[in-house]
User: Which sequence fits this backbone?
């Protein structure tokens, strides 16, 4: 069935940001005295901070320490790393194609609301996305299905008439738990075995666009 609605992840999928997210977390956590490695944190990018902090250093998001670390991480990311970010190959072109073909586009991201807007501006996608759901809007971030289920509600479509585009195992798990088929891209840094469960895996959005006639995006 041709998908009428498309649910979009942003970090790693539309913006090449996963590496710098890991670097920002590493800087902040090391400065706070935690012993962590960048590669350890890199494997957690795609979760929201409610999942990443307990997994990385055993700190809860809503604790005083968690709130302090999250504020600092956001400041480091927004001030130091955001200005240098670029879209992934073909990100805006794919979204333009989908909109021109009559698809409804809704974002389902683990980013917080203010970060997400800045990321969409990097892609040039603020005029192409009809609605957004972020970790600020739901109880649990990916890999829980909350953000995908919220995106479905905003689309007003059943799961079988939609498809998600994502780049991490957490996207795949969240989509699967919401019964939404997902197309994965490798540009977020994950391998095909990591993305098991996706209905198709491509290199980046430009590759998805080239092969769109072979998928539910036809």
Assistant:
């Amino acid at each position: 069935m041709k998908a009428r609605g498309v649910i979009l992840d942003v970090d790693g999928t539309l913006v090449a940001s996963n590496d710098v997210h890991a670097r920002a977390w590493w800087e902040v956590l090391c400065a706070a005295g935690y012993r962590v490695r960048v590669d350890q944190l890199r494997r957690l990018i795609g979760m929201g901070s409610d999942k990443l902090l307990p997994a990385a250093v055993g700190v809860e998001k809503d604790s005083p320490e968690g709130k302090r670390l999250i504020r600092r991480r956001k400041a480091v990311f927004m001030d130091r790393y955001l200005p240098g970010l670029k879209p992934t190959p073909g990100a805006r072109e794919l979204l333009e194609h989908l909109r021109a073909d009559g698809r409804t586009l809704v974002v389902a991201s683990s980013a917080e609301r203010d970060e997400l807007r800045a990321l969409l501006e990097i892609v040039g996608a603020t005029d192409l996305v009809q609605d957004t759901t972020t970790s600020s809007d739901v109880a649990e971030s990916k890999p829980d299905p909350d953000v995908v289920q919220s995106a479905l509600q905003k689309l007003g479509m059943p799961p079988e008439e939609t498809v998600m585009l994502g780049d991490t195992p957490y996207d795949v798990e969240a989509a699967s738990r919401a019964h939404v088929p997902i197309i994965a891209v490798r540009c977020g840094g994950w391998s095909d075995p990591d993305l098991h469960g996706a209905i198709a895996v491509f290199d980046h959005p430009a590759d998805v666009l080239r092969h769109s006639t072979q998928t539910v995006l036809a």
About this structure: The longest strand covers residues 104-108. The domain at 18-83 is CATH 1.10.150 (DNA polymerase; domain 1). The chain has two domains: 5-17+85-214, 18-83. The first helix runs from residue 18 to 31.
